[in-house]
Amino acid sequence: MDEFMLIFRHEDGKKIxxxxxxxxxxxxxxxxxxxxAAQNKFVLGNGLLFDDARVVHHNKMVTNxxxxxxxxxxxxxxxVKAESAxxxxxxxxxxxxxxxxxxxxxxxxxxxxxxxx
Amino acid sequence: MFRTEFSRISAVLCxxxxxxxxxxxxxxxxxxxxxxxxxxxxxxxxxxxxxWLYVVAxxxxxxxxxxxxxxxxKIMPELKQTTDVPAIELDLSDQNISDSLLQMLFAICxxxxxxxxxxxxxxxxxxxxxxxxxxxAFLSNKETINKRLFRAREKLRAEKVPIExxxxxxxxxxxxxxxTTLYLLYNEGYYSESQDAVIREELCIEAIRLxxxxxxxxxxxxxxxxALMALMCLHASxxxxxxxxxxxxxLYQDQDESLWNKELISEGAYHLHIASQGRTLSRYHLEATxxxxxxIKEDTAEKWDNIxxxxxxLLQLEYSPVAALNRTFALxxxxxxxxxxxxAEKLGLAGNPYYHTLLGELYQGIDNQQALQHLQQAxxxxxxxxxxxxxxxxxxxxxxx
Lengths: 117, 401
Fold this sequence. Notes:
The complex is a heterodimer of chains A (117) and B (401).
Chain A: E1 2-9, H1 13-16, H2 19-37, E2 42-47, E3 54-56, E4 62-64, E5 74-82, H3 85-93, E6 104-109
Chain B: H1 2-17, H2 22-43, H3 49-75, H4 94-108, H5 115-126, H6 131-137, H7 142-158, H8 171-191, H9 197-215, H10 223-236, H11 262-275, H12 283-294, H13 301-317, H14 321-335, H15 337-345, H16 353-363, H17 368-381, H18 385-397
Helix pairs in contact in B: 1-2, 1-4, 2-3, 4-5, 5-7, 5-8, 6-7, 8-9, 8-10, 9-10, 10-11, 10-12, 11-12, 12-13, 13-14, 14-15, 14-16, 15-16, 16-17, 17-18
Protein name (chain A): Transcription initiation protein
InterPro entries (chain A): Dimeric_a/b-barrel, YCII
Domain YCII-related (chain A): 10-110
């Protein structure tokens, strides 16, 4: 069994939806994660705040942002256990953020010691 | 009285002699009670039975050391001048008793001891259970339990586990281990497959009593300990309503809520309130809050919505098959059987009777043939008579089309 990171890319929900709508999305996300956890396939997860973000560039210059104004912004991730990338992708298919057009969930296998050489 | 006093005497003796004499402490406590039962049965119970027990225990301890002293005198006369009879003055004040009990609890729940053995030792030393009672509770035999306890005592001796409170910095981690053991001890009683209802209930009561020890000490009176206490009280409140006169299990939805113990419910709510002060959110918090929602018998959308969200979080913290099944049941209450079925099918618990009972319920009205097959599978996998009866009733009530 390998571990995969499911990376959510979407714009900042607060900019396009009411707090009530956010609440509904949050619940739907928790139900989705709960379904994975009920199969004992959930490892961990975090949502990422769009407020007060920084980007540090190669010359150590610090800029504000990202501001979550484009669909490609990283909004959060979870790590799941799965037999294959396809199984991990099948979890991702039910992710509620995919209800927003243009949003994506990227599926990436996590490197283990033996994958390094 | 037997259980409480036995644990007090053995904890104080153990503290006094040190962990290497753990069996001696148990033996003296046992002998004291044996003598009490023999004497009291024909002389009647003394005016102050507790004081009587303490005097006998003290004398037995003294005699033991006098004998040990004699032995040393004869075998090693050259040591005569140094081996004064050790002044054995047992401190049986309330303070020392409760300190000793708490310290013993920490010693027994030492990470070096396997959890199953911790529970066994706690039952023997802190709850005064006999070996056959422990064997009964674990659905095991005396020999296995004796071996398990023997190995655990050896380990305590080998590791030189001190009977004292851990360093303050160590307490949070060690306390987690203690809470786990108490939680399992409680579950052993609440969910045990043992047929003996009396023993099962006693396990629950003992777990509550030992958790109270933690709440009585400021160092261990933490939000998580309160949450565990809340969980125990709230579950225990339903014990009187869980069994019919034949010992068959009564399912939650069929229970007579007038039999629920109101006092325990409010005690549970009180501890849950204390537990919520602070920033920790343990699995006990989540499970206690779920148990609290269950004290509202009426099915409301709000109730099941909250229970579902709590199970979602509980499973993220710690997976267990029971939580996975209960979460799926809550999902069916919120979103309907049709929505819950595909998630139930994915749980991967085909060897678990409760999994098939759940699927049997969810398929009802959707595919009764499937429902029947799952209930029959559940009947086949289930281990106890009361459970088999409950499942058989479900099969009998299934409308076959």
